[in-house]
Amino acid sequence: MCTTCGCSGNGHKLTAFAAMKKPVSTFGITFDAPGVVVEESGEAGFPLGNTLTAPAPTKTVVELERDILDKNNRLAERNRGFFEARNILALNLVSSPGSGKTTLLERTLADLGDRQRFYVVEGDQQTARDAERIAASGAPVVQINTGKGCHLEAEMVHQAIRQLQPAGDSVLFIENVGNLVCPSLFDLGEAYRVVVISVTEGEDKPLKYPDMFRSSQLCIINKTDLLPYLKYDLEALRNFARQVNPALEFLEVSATTGQGMDTWYDWLEQKSKETPAFS
Amino acid sequence: MHELSIIYSVIDAAENELRQREDKMVIESIELEIGELAGVEISSLEFLWPAAVERTVLETAECKITRVPGMAACTTCGHTFVVQQYFDPCPQCGSHWNQITSGEELRIKSLTLVERTPGLQVLQSVLTE
Asked: Theoretical Cys-Cys bridge with A206: which of A228, A241, A250, B106, CB 3.0 to 4.6 Å?
């Protein structure tokens, strides 16, 4: 039986490109070619084989069948195991830059800080400005600067929690780099991914950046205090987001005025009581 | 530009595989499987590849990419259909509730290794010049 797809053949041949040794890296793209080869002799693909006195080299095809992000995914699962064992609710906050993630956290820490233990990991390309804002509220915080990197990876979060040493029965906010594209691919070990969108952004953002809205469980619509000054259709935003992810939950808040923040606090309280389900 | 992280992960996996073989082999080609819903821009990957693999085990390797089309099963009516975007509704009942069955692949399928031979190295250096 074919080990690639389980078909009854000995494995179908790949639609092969010239297996010629090239001195520079090359690229070939094919569409939906199933299956792969086993072992081949090197003769056919070796261009100048006849002129060489040495025997043609043996070729081996190693069928890896491994996720490209395997290492990140495994580290993310380790982080997740740590969080679950200590009953830490870990949330990955994602959004475009300027949607108000840090303000949302500042307000949350100020309002709930006396009855709930919080930890924060801040991800930005440069500066510790966000970490300074969070530190002012009294919560332990670690800043990760990704340099030119456009997203956080599980390894960075792993390093950050080693520094933070979060106590059990707490909430860990991981504020990702402001970017609606790249962070969607990288699992950090969070229990929930929370996408924040502000009403000064277009209603159609979920359609323009579907990966992020598809992979999130909660959507916080922020800056609702500005609605009276804007032509903004909240229902259109929700409909677009539901087209990408019908299971997405929504909350409407203004982190500046505090309006709607109680719904967010209720959500946090409910989720921190729930036992995580294995998936 | 997460495509660069993707390439670094591929290099990492290839290096690991080669290390297990005590560096007696060189990588002739690598085959990737990238679904059309995987959130990876192939043109960016192609553009970044030569610079990213320079002085790594993949420097001279050919990269073959298989694209896998997005397929979904409608959780409302059970119809299976091709999805280009996550927001494509079921063509039969119009529902957006679906389960993606393929198209999110981001996999290294295989590596083709050839034995490192002195003759090959000479040939390689001739070809490079």
From this structure: A241
Q: How many CB atoms lie within 10 A of CB B100?
A: 15
pLDDT bucket at A94, cuts 50 / 70 / 90: very high
Instruction: Name the residue facing A32 among B68, B107, B111 (closest C-beta).
Output: B68
Q: Which of A32, A42, A210 sits opposite B87 (nearest CB)?
A: A210
What pLDDT does A18 receive? 27
User: Domain B2-128, what fold?
Assistant: hypothetical protein PF0899 fold (3.30.2320)
Residues 27-46 in A contacting B (C-alpha not used; CB under 8 Å):
27-33, 36-37, 42, 45
Q: Is the pLDDT of residue A48 over 50?
A: no
User: What does the CA dihedral A145, A213, A189, A154 come to, rounded to 10 degrees?
Assistant: -30
Chain B hits for A5, CB-CB cut-off 8 Å, are none
Q: Do B113 and A28 touch (CB under 8 A)?
A: no
Q: DSSP characters for A190-223?
A: -SEEEEEEETTS-TTHHHHSHHHHHH-SEEEEE-
Residue with tokens 């999110």: B104
**In this complex, do B67 and A53 lie within 8 Å of one another by their Cβ atoms?**
no
Please give the helix or strand (H or E) that residue B13 lies within, else none.
Answer: helix B2-19
- Per-domain residue ranges for chain B? 2-128
